[in-house]
Amino acid sequence: MKLRLTALAAVLVLTACGESRDAGQIERLESGVLFRNDGPEIDAVDPHKAGGAWVQTVTGDLFVGLMRRGPDGQPQLALADSFTQSEDGLTWTFTMRDAVWSDGRAITAQDVVYSFRRAVDPATAAAYVEVFGPVVNAEAILNGEAAPETLGVSALDDRTVEIRLVHPMPFLPQLLADGRGAVLPGHVIEVHGDAWVQPENIVVNGAYTLVERTVGAQTVLRRNPLFYDAGNVCFDEVFNFPINAPETAARRARAGELDIAASVPASMVERVREDLPGHVRKVQPPNTFYFTVNTQRAPFGDRRVREALGIALDREFAFTEVIPTGLLVADRLVPELLADPYPTGEVNWADQPLDARRARALDLLSEAGFGPDNPLSFEFAYPSGGNGDRFAPALQSDWNELAEWMDVEIFSTEAAVHYQNLRAGEFDAALGGWVASVRDVSYMLDVIADRAAGNFSGWSNNDVEALLVAAQDEQDPAARAALFQQAEQIALDDFAISPLFHLERYWIVHPRIEGWIGGSHEYTPSTHLCFSAAAE
Q: Is the pLDDT of residue 21 over 80?
């Protein structure tokens, strides 16, 4: 622990002035200690229970699966050293490399089977594990209709894993490289239960081990010497500091206290560029943020109410004037950059004059029974910190100014809590967001698929489900894309969601850190980061 304490003390002492700050930061980095912030507090160390994408900054350093995210962001072999798939795309066979857990025990195919079964077991309450629905019997298990032991993942021997699917899933390697595909230590979990993630109990197979986790303060990782690729891991220790307010993260990076800082507020970008030349990096991950309602609560099951609330918003004002940098007004759910070269659905009211939209909104609400004698009131929830604190009041004003009988309150919680509430259906209306960490249109459409991981609203439509099912078996890319487009358009026309904006992300990354791929996938494992030598 001496190295960690000495490094931290050095930074705190040397941040008083520019040259000393830079020298202290570089000295710490050269000693093998990385200070990073990738977002707010992580909600779990257990990869199966982790929610937000930023959590994988930590879980991706602790655990890998058959695949992992490579230095270019694409899936690469991890615990597997090869795989094959059947001609019909329904059977994938993985051969595993020789690798061990951090306690020295061999990692076997049985560990993979255990992990998959645990992920889909309803008793685990895993987050977003519905993405593995195409695995044989996964849906039945998730619905409590079959035992986890019936899952279509088998150990053919100690070094061979077979995964059987009910329909082709060409992006399976991406899912296996995601946190949900992590292979976990059943021999430890079965002994310690939920306490298995405590530093004194945890056993890992990734590049780092967990040394300390202090909620609200820091998570400390140390290089795992038994990791199969340990020779290519550069940093000895990684401090991850959870920071809910991006402004705070940016200030700490400007002071030399962070080497990587997420989500620099647009209002600070130019100032950071002036103070820290070469540190600002801009990315646009495939994402959409949108207005959503809980259709299981009255009156949001009424399409007229959903439409009225969606079309009444002045998105151009909120996302180009209130927030002049970093947000792009969204006219679709599936970002064009993800669907390219195929077309996506489109918001059909985007070009209508705002006054006309608001007049229609009032007519719709009147038809739905709202007026002076029956006011409409609800709460709009959003994650605290960053842009939301600035644009949420503008959205509130848009609704409340429709009529005297409109009464909309806004409130915020930390991002992890916010999305936990959305998954639990504990909200009236909210800002929703979805990032395609798996770069496939089907994953983005989890926002509208019945009972899917990203469908916070509870909205469902039989025609959409039929189109998504048809797309599952469609092998022709253009025909598959056309089915997705039809499904998206139905959802947009029924106001399952109202797209608001696509987020451009600005990060602070020390210019001598190599290997950072950032926001295109929402996180970069420390595994792939190195500190380069100074330029000649």
A: no
